[in-house]
Amino acid sequence: MALHHCRSGEVARLGALDDPATATAALARTPSFEAVHLVVRAGDSIAPHHVAGSMTLYCIAGHARLGGDAPAELRAGDWLFLDPGTPHAVEAVADTSLLLTILFDESAAG
């Protein structure tokens, strides 16, 4: 089953974190860009990994810890940038809503 990605101009409702039905959702993907509404519930984690492109995480709500080469704590309103290939993991201290963006850099494509 293919994931739904928004078309240009399409509005996506991310959903409130206090709604148990709100879950991670792919938002958009092009050859050079990807956006995901990442929902990580308290106590859950995302195993260590890396992505090929430059990456940002914006914490919409909640509290998450990042592990790996760039340990950090993210709370509502915090924004983080990671260089391509930076190993990281995510652990939710509280229910957390993140906006993940990835830019597939030309330098990382080779």
TrEMBL record:
Domain Cupin type-2 span(s) in chain numbering: 39-100
UniProt-listed Gene3D superfamilies: Jelly Rolls (2.60.120.10)
Among InterPro entries, the record links this protein to:
Cupin_2, RmlC-like_jellyroll, RmlC_Cupin_sf
What are this entry's molecular-function GO terms? dioxygenase activity
Q: Which UniProt keywords apply?
A: Dioxygenase, Oxidoreductase
Which superkingdom, per the lineage?
A: Bacteria
- Which Pfam families does the record associate with it? Cupin_2
This one is known as Quercetin dioxygenase-like cupin family protein
